[in-house]
Amino acid sequence: MDQPAPIPRPPAVTSRLRDRLTIPVLASGGILMAVMQTVVVPLLPDLPRLTGASAATVSWTVTATLLSGAVLTPVLGRAGDMYGKRRVLICALALMTIGSVLCALTSDIGVLIAARALQGAAASVVPLSISILRDELPPQRRGSAVALMSSTVGIGAALGLPLAALVVQYADWHTMFWLTGALGALGVAATWWAVKESTVREPGRFDVLGALGLAAGLVCLLLGVSQGGTWGWGSARVLGLFLGGAVVLAGWWWQQLRAERPLVDLRLVSRPRVGLSHVAALLTGFAFYANSLVTAQLVQAPKATGYGLGLSIVATGLCLLPGGVTMLLLSPLSARISAARGPRITLALGAAVIACGYALRIADSRDLWMIILGATVVATGTTLAYSALPTLILRAVPAAQTASANGVNVLMRTIGQAASSAAVAAVLVHHSSPVGGIPVPTLHGYQLAFATAGAVALAACAAALSIPGDGSSDGTRRAEGTARDARDEEMEGA
To answer: What is the pLDDT of residues 283-294, one digit of tens each?
Structure first.
């Protein structure tokens, strides 16, 4: 008997579905990472009572995440370039999920701090995801996807504060961590299913000594910055941390220049197109972070100050929500500007818009609608700037080093945010007056903080304009050509 003719198989629906879900899954991971970083903020005033610890000890639930994120971002980025970006991304999301579950299971402050340190690993989600998008997407889809991925930091931060405030106000505080843990587990599963492993690798042995040196130097530096206001900027502990950090990082720099496979390719960083992009990232991180810090305190200030609105934590979070929505909606626009004019122009424009937003904040910080408008303008500029930074890096480094290079860029943003937090706190403490027996920052202090952040934004604009042009006049040269030029330059330099 004749064998029946084979029935044609239907199209690979599952494969197409996975391809379509790659960008949403990666973007949701970035948003979840930013939410995780901000959800603890509304808890800080109540954590001493809930855990029986001092306010200074409780502050480590924020500091631990900052330190571990700063250390692990470049390390995990390098590991992704060597061993697989999808694999390392899943590990980072898994560590964040484990940290959330530990936070949900305990009220012990020591365990909470350790769990928050585990959550800091999620800071590497954005640079790893951007590198995956470069490797897997066609050029015509890459720009908008990278812009969206960059914007997830602001979107998640804007969503995290009101979400956490609602949970704290109407439910047990552990519920918040159960929620982030469940979302983290869902993110791990979705990433495992929908994201392909990149075939772009850089073989070699992992630089363990470089990772340890960078970790030690960053911990000293960022610990001094974050605790300077509490311990005293002139105290022996802070000065010792700064001195120790400088010595360790100087030794690390020397070691990296001589390592066969360094953790961070400093010769690549020393090129103007890469180095100035990192400088702009640091300055932009400083300027962006002041917006959230100052707005949250300003609208919660008591009405007795003459300028404060006395809003609740939930209402405060809702004031920042329009900025997050704006970042989501404007990310495609930033990609179009980068395609038409080049990412350095987009970065400079974004920094200039941030400065304009702070000018509005200085002009009027009494009316709620003006406060929301100024904060939203700053968020608009941040969208443009943050979407342009990874595109600059992608065009300036070889494909096999994108995760580690973007990890360093995110690290510079983190350092800028830490410096912004310290600077804003110093300004507001110095310009305070008693209200009801409690020292409260004056309106002049807030305006000075806005002016400082605006000046730093203008410096970021200048740094962006100093970056050498990214290629042809229309700014559309593809990343592959730029990577080839970078390798040619490296060979010529050798």
So the answer is: 999 998 888 788
